[in-house]
Amino acid sequence: MDLGLAGKWALVCGASKGLGLGCAQALVAEGVHVVINARQPEALQSSAIDLRAIGAQWESASGQKGIKPQVLTVAADITTPAGRDAVFSVPGGPGRDFDIVVTNAGGPPPGDFRDWDREAWIKAVDANMLTPIELIRATVDGMAERGFGRIVNITSSAVKAPIDILGLSNGARSGLTGFVAGVARSSIAARGVTINNLLPGKFDTDRLATTLGGAAARSGRTLEEVRLAHQASIPAGRFGSAQEFGALCAFLCSVQAGYVTGQNLLADGGAYPGAY
Predict the structure, then answer these.
(1) Would you place residue 220 in the very low, low, confident or very high pLDDT band (cuts 50, 70, 90)?
(2) How far, CA to CA in Å, does 270 sit from each of 88, 205, 209, 266?
């Protein structure tokens, strides 16, 4: 299926590894120009090399010589005004005229809510609610004027099924979910702009490896034992891959998904037990 995205510009945040990189890979494979953002320049440059190789394959397969997808990098903290300004002013980029925006920020740390002070809450809300809103605010009107726009927010399955030790994430991401539910159904919906949320469950990423390592250390079990126990709790019997997640993101960005907006797409291998 041709997703109809060749030649469009995408901003993908947190794209040096994990789910963000999976999204960037899927978009470049469709001929999309990308600006990838993350905090660590070395990891970002390494990912850019991988993405440019994917872009060269797309150019060869498509037969459209001379329009190989561009891959631009911005090593900056997207949760700060300076970081967002850097993304919007990168040389060779589209400015604020992105066709696609994929928001993504690492989740706040787990813990007991009794230990979190106001500063911890503000930091979580700033990264996981206010930053995506700022990126939407900066780009959505231009998308509407051009008649096409796709915004995908990477949130968490904890929005659907809250996890007690992830209170900071539960609260901040649920706030973003409520905001998106309203703005996605505003006047932009009739002007070719969609906003959706992707809710990942357990995917085989560095973050999951860190979480499992911590669980193993606390329980006295081996890492492999902990991995197998977590996989057994998922009906699919395994963790998801970043490539699977990226494919879902690319579909939501496609022309075929123009009738899907304001939705929360749960990707968790069937772990959520509810009917709705």
Answers:
(1) confident
(2) 38, 18, 20, 9
pLDDT at 23: 98
* 14 CB neighbour count, 10 Å cutoff: 22
For the segment 132-159, what is each residue's pLDDT rounded down to a tens digit? 999 999 999 999 999 999 999 999 999 9
pTM above 0.90, yes or no: yes
Classify 176 in phi/psi space as left (phi over 0), alpha (psi -120 to 50) or beta: alpha
| Contact (Cβ atoms closer than 8 angstroms) between residue 202 and residue 158 | no
Mean of all residue pLDDT scores within the chain: 94
Using alpha carbons only, what angle is made at residue 26 by residues 25 and 29, rounded to the nearest 5 degrees? 85
User: Identity (one letter) of the amino acid at 211?
Assistant: T
Whether the Cβ atoms of residue 5 and residue 102 lie closer than 8 Å to each other: no
CA distance linking residue 195 with residue 252, whole number of Å: 9
